[in-house]
Amino acid sequence: MSYDLNVRLRRCDMPTPAAWASAIIAADFPVALDTDFDVDTDMGFLPCVAKGEASGFECAVSEHGAKGTQESGIAPGHDFRVCFSMGASPLELVCGFAAASVLASMTGGTLDDPHTGESIACGHATSWAKKRLVALSTADDEPAPEQRHYWFRAKRYGWGWGLPLVWQGWAVLGIYLLLVAVGAAVLLPWYGPEVFFPFIVVMMALLVGTCWVTGEPPHWRWRKQRHDGGR
Length: 231
Fold this sequence. Notes:
By secondary structure, the chain is of the alpha+beta class. It has helices at residues 17-26, 69-72, 90-107, 125-139, 145-148, 167-191, 193-214; strands spanning 3-9, 31-33, 45-50, 53-63, 80-86, 110-113, 118-120, 152-154, 161-164.
């Protein structure tokens, strides 16, 4: 599952990363935005810490024309758009909703939810985001993130998984390394590389399969790339 949000605002009102991060905390979201980025050059995957765990969201910026804003009820002069994309992890939803709603609130922008067709005014953005997060969590049949206990965390950049999150993941990684070491000590000298290398391929496939079943759902995450929307 993925979720997208858009914020339309004036380019001159775009806050600094530090001001944005402070406003998220002030709005009582459990999200700490990493401020080591530049809106003009470093948009992509923006790391956060949500509820004490590493997470984040995809973010892209583009120029947005004001044509038709009066007919749609959007305030004129919004020439800039920030697009937020979140993956399947519930913590990513918390990060993305917090960042998007606070950005709209602090800049007088408009928060658009393409999934529901809603356009939320700046004064209601953060309260709407909190209610929407509650609605999404109660509508989801899967356990909450605190109850899921993923064994492996999805990588921050690229595709795949990083180090284990819980002891079960460390046990899987330890067994994998032990079997590889035993295979190198036994198969390689006795049967040669024509047996050892297929053994390694099978072991890697088993490890990836275990990560796929027990780890956070992975998706491509990029950093330090500019999305200009055709400029």
